[in-house]
Amino acid sequence: MQPLSGRRNIQTAVLDVTDHTALAAAVSGFDMVVSAVPGFLGLQTMKQVIEQRKDLVDISFLPEDVLPLVALAKENGVTVVMDCGVAPGMPNYSMGYHNEKMKIEKMEYMVGGLPKIRTFPFEYKAPFSPCDVIEEYTRPARCVENGSLVVRPAMSDVEYVHFDTIGTLEEFNTDGLRSLIHTMDHIPFMQEKTLRYPGHIQLIKALREAGFLDKEPLDMNGTAVIPFDVTSRILFNAWRSGPEEPEFTVMRIKIRGTEKDAGSQSIGLNFYLTCIIVFYNFSFET
User: Fold this and answer.
1) Any idea what the CATH number is for the domain that residue 274 is in?
2) Last residue of a domain, which of 81, 103, 127?
3) Is residue 5 part of a domain?
4) Do 267 and 150 fall into the same domain?
5) What is the pLDDT of residues 222-254, one digit of tens each?
6) Cα-based distances in Å from 52 to 34, 45, 67, 73, 202
7) Distance from C-alpha of 207 to C-alpha of 260, rounded to nearest angstrom
8) Same domain? 205 vs 132
9) 185-219 pLDDT, tens digit each
10) 100 and 73: one domain?
11) Cβ count near 283 (within 10 Å)
12) In this predicted structure, which of 144-153, 175-184, 239-248 has the lowest mean pLDDT?
C-alpha cells in the first residue's frame, strides 16, 4: 500500500474481499474492476464483482473453471477478461491474432519472472502471492497433443534452454494454457512451460516430496498445522523483493502453421517471439 498512497489520483483502502458488503461498496463508484487477488480468492471475487454489474479484468491465478460464470455475466450485462496478466495474457493475444491469419498447427510458450541478482538457495523472488507460485508447482499441468488433452505432473519434463542475453535457464511443465485449452481446442498441439534458474526446481521438488507442500493438517501437540500454509509463510519472506530490486521477465512464444497469400497458396509460417522485460519491483507489505 505504501508505494501507492499519496500519489495523485490514487486512493487506497484496506478491506476483506470476502466481505460481500465491503467489496460492493468499494467498487460501487467505478466502471471497471481489475482483480489481482491471490488465486484462492479469485473465483469468489469475480462472482461478486459480476453481481455488482461491473466489467472485470482478472489476473489472479485461480484454479477453478470460470466458464460456469458465463451465464451470470450475460445476465448482468458485463464483460469479464480472465488470465489477463503477462502470461497467461500476452500469449493468448498472440494466439488470437494469428488464429485469424493462419491455420495453427502447434503453439508452445515458455515464461518466467526472475531476479537479476541470484541469491542462495532459491535464486528466485515472488513479487506476487507466494502461495500462487507454490500452486503453480503443485497443480497438474495440462497440454494438448494430437488434439487430445494430456495431463502431466507439475514440474515434470525439465529441460535446459539458452538465451543469449541471459544464459541457461531450466523449463518445466506448469498449468499455464488455462483458457486456451477451451477457446483454441481446434489446435492439435499446445504446451506451456515455466522458466527458472537451473537448480531451483530440484529444491522445490525436495520440499514437495518431504511433505512441505501438503495441504492435509498435521497434529502438532494438539494444534492442527497445514504444511502448505507454513511453507508459504516462510517462502514469503525468502522470496520477498526488496525496494526497487531489479527483476526481468523472459517469454518465448512459438506458433507454427500455414496461411493463405493473395494467390490462395498455402505458405508455411513459423512465428517466433522472444521478449525480455526488465523492471523494478516495489515491496508490498501484508
Assistant:
1) 3.30.360.10
2) 81
3) no
4) yes
5) 999 999 889 988 988 888 877 778 888 899 999
6) 14, 11, 18, 10, 44
7) 50
8) yes
9) 999 999 999 999 999 999 999 999 999 999 999 99
10) no
11) 14
12) 239-248
Q: What is the pLDDT at residue 129?
A: 72
Is it the case that residue 277 has pLDDT exceeding 90? no
Query: Which CATH number is 42's domain given?
Result: 3.40.50.720
CA Rg, the chain, in Å? 21
Q: Please give the tally of structural domains in the chain.
A: 2
Report residue 101 as a C-alpha cell.
491469419
Query: Do 48 and 154 share a domain, yes or no?
Result: no
Q: Which three cell numbers stand for residue 36?
A: 489481482
Expressed as residue numbers, the domain containing 201 is: 90-280
85, 207, 217, 237, 239 from 225: Cα distances, Å: 33, 16, 5, 19, 22
Q: How many CB atoms lie within 10 A of CB 147?
A: 10
Beta bridge partner(s), residue 258 = 103, 268
Alpha carbons 67 and 236: distance in angstroms, whole number: 31
Residue 16 to residue 22: CA distance in whole angstroms: 7
**One-letter identity of residue 82:** M
